[in-house]
Amino acid sequence: MNAINSDTMIVGGVGLLILAALVIGFVLWRVRSGRKPVNGTAFKLVGDEFRFMLHQAIGEVRDLEKGWIQQPDGLATIKHPQFNGLSRDAEYAKQRPLDGLHAAYQNMEASKEEVRAALSGNGDRSAAVDGYKQSTIGAIAALYLWEKQDGRSPENTPTTRSAFVRDWMKENDISQALIPGIALRDEVVEYLRQAGMTLTPKPMAMTAYEYYGRASGDTGMVAAGTPDEAVADDVPIVPPPPETPVAIEEEAPAPVEAESETAADPVQEAPADAESGPEVGPAEEEPQSQGAVAADPPYPHNPGERAAPVTVAQIAGSGDPPPPSRRRMRRRR
């Protein structure tokens, strides 16, 4: 009995341990899965807080350019409680880097202090406003990296098309002329490119005229127009002389030789011997049926003279019997 009881207690204890481990694992899984939406909401709140601060800074820069802010009190103080609460938790910092937003906040605060000092008369106002502009451009780039690249640094982001960055700024109501005096979208794209982010397509280094007009010594390329010949560096490239228009004389068309009337119509002219012969009037000619060909007189004959047709009356007057018809000839056969 003692052995049986001991075995039962061991099996029951192991079962309770397994059940306790399963309960603990389930509780931890619920806590972890429940914190994921909380993390996403926290990141979204930090982004919204930074966006509000950014639009406030853009409005202040615009007012400074127009001269509407003349006192240091006209610039608002930067406050970011959501970011401060998120940065204190190490778990949030592991999921998404906060260095980009932290650097943007510091640059904005430093540039605002310079503007306040300049408005108080302790510095150059135009230089301070330009520095505030640059910090605002960097803040826009930091917000893009926070929302679209999960807070990564520009060097660690994948290759991205610059059109996607412009579309994101368009969605956030960041227009090209939002800040007077600069093309804001172009400046943000150039800031990201200078920071190390790979953006495509790359900007053109020179125009097509400059590219094809370079000498071979500039980049090791041959001169334009001579792709197969190497050009020395010390030999100046002489442009070709301008082409002068050449007048082209049009040749007059050759006169068409008139054909002889004899070759054109051999029947109209006749030799001198035929003029003495009897003339044939149009009344004596009988019309021929379509397709019938008149028989030529026996050779020799004059080609210019046409024989008159023989009628039945002429045959009867000559005393010769008329030739039998084809029907009679068939009957005789």
Describe this protein's structure.
This protein is mainly α and 333 residues long. Helix content is 52%, strand content 1%. It is built from 13 helices and two strands, in the order H-H-H-H-H-E-H-H-E-H-H-H-H-H-H. It has helices spanning 2-66, 81-87, 90-95, 99-119, 125-148, 162-171, 184-194, 208-212, 216-219, 261-264, 272-275, 312-317, 326-332, and strands at 160-161, 199-200. Strands 1-2 form a two-stranded parallel ribbon. Helix 4 packs antiparallel against helix 5. The longest helix has 65 residues, at 2-66. It is flat. It starts with a helix and ends with a helix. Mean pLDDT is 74; it is low at 220-235 and 256-295.
**What does the oligomeric state look like here?**
single chain
Describe the largest sheet. 2 strands, parallel
Give the DSSP E fraction (strand runs of 2 or more residues).
under 5%
Output mean pLDDT. 74
| Helical coverage, percent range | 40-55%
- Straight-line N-to-C gap: 152 Å
What strand line-up does the widest sheet have?
A: 1-2
SS field, number of helical segments: 13
> What's the β-strand tally?
2
Instruction: Label the structural class.
Output: mainly alpha
The string of secondary-structure elements, in order, is HHHHHEHHEHHHHHH
Low-pLDDT runs of 5+ residues are 220-235, 256-295
Shape field: flat
Question: How would you briefly describe this protein structure?
Answer:
The protein has helices at residues 2-66, 81-87, 90-95, 99-119, 125-148, 162-171, 184-194, 208-212, 216-219, 261-264, 272-275, 312-317, 326-332; strands spanning 160-161, 199-200. With 333 residues, it is mainly α. The protein is flat, with a radius of gyration of 55 Å.
